[in-house]
Design brief:
The chain is of the alpha/beta class and 293 residues long. The chain has ten helices and 13 strands. It has a domain of 200 residues. Helix 2 crosses helix 3 and helix 8 packs across helix 9. It starts with 6 loop residues before the first strand and ends in a 6-residue tail after the last strand. Bound molecules: zinc ion (ZN). Zinc ion binds next to loops.
């Protein structure tokens, strides 16, 4: 294995400390491995914090040209997506202090504030955070790594991470930190890509084949089981895990409808094994009140 500057080897699982790690891909510089104990899949070697800082502060993140990611120039769709997420959250909590971790450009913060939440956000990238302060305005945006932010004793009724956990180099540390920031009876909602989605190539293989090393932003990939393992390890009580389509729900509904007409047998497979049909999953957790007795 070549030495890669700004990257470090992971010798034991960052979630369960297991050392039975199996290499899943065969690329010259970096690869995805799976921990046989907790089942999480992760990039190895992984970028150091300094490397991540460079990746997430590059100016192109704010580009709106044709080379930018789809979500940055489809504001209308993104708002619909955030509204769907909020409707789901409202089943658990209707008001209170909401912290969106990795709030990006502040789209979810904006929708949650419209619904009456007292909104806060954290963002690792200064590039995004400065932009978010402009768009979200009065909301409190904290810049930096979650575990290094001083919240002055504030706790939250809702903490959300929308496609954030898979980007973080320290998922367990982050989850433990979340368990301390959520109020008793509050909820933490985490949505991540579903690595078990049935595709031509597994997600981690597509990443390796389609992106250069400095654009491999997904450091961890979770199955439903792996995500539950991680949340339990951090001391959470799991309320619900459901599978969702992360991207363009309206478009996907149309796609699934067409699939049903054209290939009914495929649809039966899809219905029978729902976790394989969805691109993402959403887990709701809480801290057990017993912890506070
Ligand atoms: Zn593990």
């Amino acid at each position: 294995m070549n030495e890669l500057t700004g990257y470090e080897w992971i010798k034991s699982c960052k979630i369960c400390t297991g050392d039975q790690l199996v290499q899943l891909t065969n690329s010259p510089m970096v690869n995805y491995y799976q921990c046989m104990s907790c089942l999480v899949i992760f990039l190895n070697p992984q970028p150091t914090l300094a490397t991540l800082k460079q990746q997430y502060t590059r100016k192109e993140l704010l580009d709106t040209g044709p080379a930018s990611a789809w979500f940055k120039h489809d504001k209308f769709y993104l708002k619909e997506l955030c509204r769907e997420r909020l409707r789901d959250v409202l089943r658990y909590k209707e008001r209170g202090d909401l912290l969106d971790v990795g709030c990006g450009m502040g789209d979810f913060c904006g929708v949650a504030r419209e619904a009456g939440f007292n909104v806060f956000g954290t963002e690792f990238s200064d590039t995004y955070a400065e932009q978010t302060k402009k768009t979200v305005g009065a909301s409190e945006i904290y810049i930096g790594r979650l575990q290094e932010i001083n919240f002055s004793g504030r706790k939250f009724d809702v903490i959300s991470l929308w496609h954030v956990l898979e980007h973080l180099p320290d998922p367990l540390e982050t989850l433990v930190c979340l368990s301390k920031l959520v109020k008793t009876g509050g909820i933490v909602v985490i949505e991540v890509p579903n690595v078990e989605q049935k595709r031509k190539r597994p997600m981690y293989r597509s990443d390796l084949e389609d992106y250069t090393i400095d654009r491999l932003e997904h450091l961890f990939y979770y199955s439903g089981k792996a995500l539950q393992n991680a949340c339990l390890k951090a001391g959470f009580k799991i309320l619900n895990l459901n599978f969702v389509d992360a991207h363009q729900p309206a478009k996907n509904m149309a796609k699934h409808f067409l699939r049903k007409i054209k290939r009914p047998s495929k649809q039966i497979v899809y219905m029978g094994r729902p976790n394989k049909g969805f691109s993402a999953m959403r887990i709701y957790s809480t801290v057990s009140p017993n912890d506070f007795l």
